Amino acid sequence: MTMEMERPGAADPQPGPAAPSTEIVPLRGSGTELVVRPESALARLAATPTAVRTLAAARTAGAAALDGARRTGRVTYIATVRAPAPVVGRALCRFISGRPLLGDSRTDATFWRSARRQPIEVAGETGKWSYLAGWQRSAARIGALLIAVGVGLLVRPDLVLALGLGLAALALVWGTYGAKRSVETRGHRTRYLWPLHEALRGAVRQTATRPEQWLHIPPDFKSNPGAELRIDLPPAYDGSDGVQNHVKTVVRNKLGLEGDTVFAFHTEGNKPYVTFREPVRPPAKVTYEDILPLMTRAKETAPIIGLAAGHKAVTVDLEAESPHVLVSAASGAGKSVLLRAILSQGLAKGGYGIIFDVKRVSHLWADNLRNCEYHRLPELIHDRLLSLRREVDRRNNLVEKYADIDGNTDHVDVGPRIWVMAEEMNVTISRLNKYWREIKEKGEPNTSPAVEALLDLLFMGRQIKIHVISVAQMASARTMGGPEARENYATRCLSRYTMNAWKMLCPEVWPMPRKPKQRGRWQIVTNGVATETQVAFFTPRQARDLAQSGIPASSRETFRDTDVPASQPSHDRDDLGQEAETVPGTVHDSKVVDPGPADSHENRAVPERSVLVGLREAVDQDLVGGMTLANLRKATQRDVQFPEAKGYRGSERLYPAEELRKWALNRRMATGESEKEGAENKGPEVEGGEERGR
């Protein structure tokens, strides 16, 4: 071939010898095209549009003809070999052994002994032929056949010879197939068909003598879950409940099927039958590598939990189905593994995580992550929930201000999507209430404001991009903040559940699915449908690496644990197959989130501009006139004159020591309280500066 440049409309240049050169010449001239011309006339003819279409049509026709030939060959094979071979083989065996060619024996004759009587259940009279021994009937048949062959050879030897050769060829093909089939099914017939045949035959009054006549169970039924199996029943079968239950029990026990095998009895007409199918199970194990290709196509709001039957991905669509998720399972069921999979994907898509973990060690993989906070102590969880309530109010104000006439808020940049993970709600709610009883003043409500803030998140989370994933061993209404709050968890994940737990959380799904025994197997209930799912297992390192990929590359070095931007557009990773979301910027009134917890980050150096201290240090150094730590924390929330935090140590707020001293002095002057009186009201302390008996 030669490559030439031509301009549209110009005459075809005459091909000439090309000078050898390795120089790459860019073709950037106006209207210049690169034309590849075939060398030979035949090749040029084949490159014409008509020839190309003709060749494509010929290839298509050839592929269709080949496919048709394959189908025809398969139909011919079934009609000439697979279907008649068993029938001919059984008839030949009956012919040689002297057994009746059709039906069952009508007497008690054996191969070596003549019949003595006719069984009572056999109706009608029986001829003398049936009373002969099997060898006598076999000899008579073979003798008659030899006589017929001899006569045929005398009359038409050529025809008999051709017929004999044809029958011999068929016998060879059928015999080979029958022998192969017999070897393959011998173990299956011995282990499954004959025991099931003997156990069911009397209960359903089946008259068939061989299991293959009415038990249609292939040898590979164990390795092919979900395949429909069938048992033919006699015409007299009445379909009573007692017999049906007996059939179900015997089939499950003899075939080793699961307890949730689905049966369907068809009793209409004169050919009743029952079909049954063992449910297809999810894969035994799902790893990070198994769902990584699926995550590339998943939406930001639909993290993948795991795989269901048929390797179908199971997601939690927090935008279309449920803004919040409830996880209920006994200890050791893998609740933390499930949360690890959800949160790491949310962070990878540009979200921001907040973990409340009173157990302190459930999610060490997320410790010190730049796009995730980790709170362990009740007082820190309390403060964080109150700041989240303020964030909810801020985002709601933005939604109200910028939503269009149809209520759409997709264009409103409220900030990054926030994922709130609340571990062990049974203990967390109890400790929050206890902490509030210790610090509340007279006249304040008994309900913890932190618990009320959590309820605000549940009722207002969808449009403002805040999602709560709560974990509880027993998710009672009291634990979850009331029955109304619990109804906001439209997606519920259960494992190792009891009947009481299932009735309480998923009464609309009944009968209750079989409790999974395999570790990592969950029931994901959404919209009244329970899906058995094998949860994806992320190792802690895999989850951490995935979560950190959600931090923009330009911010990974400068991102501060305590400084989350107030308006950061939610973005998807390029390598996860999503286009970056672009929303118009809006003006915000405050920060999105407060700093991370002091109990999960390393202490960091503070600026040298002034002496900054934490609240506990202020109490220990007696900078606030004898106030207790609890009262000082309450003052940060209620006193508008309280100094503003100027720095952080981890997530602990640091305040200028001099401003704290001045604020405390002004407070005493305003209330008329002396420093001595303040010291007397300080109360007993324990080592470390914390008050005793809080």
TrEMBL record:
Residues forming coiled coils: none
InterPro entries (UniProt xref): P-loop_NTPase
UniProt biased composition (Basic and acidic residues): 673-694
Region annotated Disordered, chain positions: 1-21, 547-604, 669-694
Record SUPFAM superfamilies: P-loop containing nucleoside triphosphate hydrolases
Protein name: FtsK domain-containing protein
Organism field: Pseudonocardia kongjuensis
